[in-house]
Design a protein that fits this description.
About 0% of the residues lie in helices and about 45% in strands. By secondary structure, it is mainly beta.
């Protein structure tokens, strides 16, 4: 039976939100016994756990490492882009799965979409469906898994969304002190002729984790960072906010979904990465996330 969720008590890391005519679906990184948790909300206020969007993993994937899902609608079908551990390897790679329904079940292709094993693997897939009809895939090479630099990458996708349609472009790496030598979880969104690159940085396990912002004139950049400070960082009751996903509501307003620890309770096993959704305001070169007062106020 579907279970009503109290979000601040749930562990829903790396959230991704799909808006459909029926409401909103939220997908998250695996939790025990669930490869891709999927949550439904009709109004972004009430949330119900639907189940596992991909209950059967492909043969090439090891269980227990299914991270950072991204679901997009392509024609009358739905595509799930996901990170998983490659069997026979300690590295993560990116796969794609398809379904007729947003809640799944999704069936993965028989081989990964992207590996980049020489760069530590590939994680954190996200897709932009640009206004000209072109699709782009964005991801991170998991360099920190093999003591290499992390970069954010992008490439055009084929019309069916199942293969790359061009060579990867290196979009950026960590350059600012507050990024702590690590960037990940890229998402590019399009707004009034500008492309906004949102990304996470630092260590997801503690309060340094944050969301950065950059802008460009094309889906593949070049992107210019806003260097003064992160777009979203620890504040009040939330600690280490990150792995964000921007989406439009039914009224066309931008919102930002992200996970965060509770201040003073960062890291497993004592903490949890709860889901939050906040208004996102964009201008040509700037962005602002409006936190509710009960989150932004100083913690007790």
């Amino acid at each position: 039976m579907p279970r009503v969720l109290h979000l601040e008590a749930e562990d829903l890391p790396d959230p991704n939100v799909l808006h459909t005519d029926d409401g909103y679906y939220v997908y998250a990184t695996n939790v025990p016994d669930v490869n891709v948790p999927v949550v439904y909300s009709p109004d972004l206020t009430n949330f119900t756990l639907v189940g596992d969007a991909m209950p059967v993993l492909p043969a090439w994937a090891r269980p227990g490492f299914t991270w950072a899902p991204d679901v997009v609608q392509v024609g009358d079908r739905y595509h799930l882009y996901f990170t998983a551990r490659l069997r026979g390897s300690r590295l993560q790679v990116i796969g794609v799965a398809t379904s007729d329904h947003p809640e799944g079940p999704f069936e993965a292709t028989d081989r990964p979409l992207l590996t980049m094993l020489d760069q530590g693997g590939a994680i954190d897939a996200n897709v932009l469906q640009a206004s000209d009809g072109t699709q782009y895939l964005y991801w991170k090479n998991d360099g920190n898994a093999v003591k290499k630099a992390t970069h954010l990458w992008g490439a055009p996708l084929s019309a069916d969304g199942l293969t790359l349609a061009g060579a990867p472009t290196d979009l950026m790496t960590a350059t600012e002190a507050w990024e702590h030598n690590l960037v990940e979880a890229p998402q590019v969104i399009e707004d009034e002729g500008r492309f906004h690159l949102l990304y996470s940085c630092a260590d997801f396990q503690d309060e340094t984790y944050a969301v950065g912002h950059a802008t460009g004139l094309t889906p593949l950049g070049p992107f210019s960072k806003y260097r003064a400070a992160p777009l979203l960082a620890s504040q009040g009751r939330i600690a280490g906010p990150g792995h964000s996903h921007a989406f439009r509501t039914a009224t066309g307003q931008w919102q930002l979904a992200y996970h965060a620890w509770e201040a003073g309770r960062c890291g497993y096993p004592h903490g949890r990465r709860a889901l939050y959704v906040s208004p996102l305001h964009l201008s040509a070169d700037q962005a602002h996330v409006a936190l509710p007062l009960d989150l932004a106020q100083a913690s007790d």
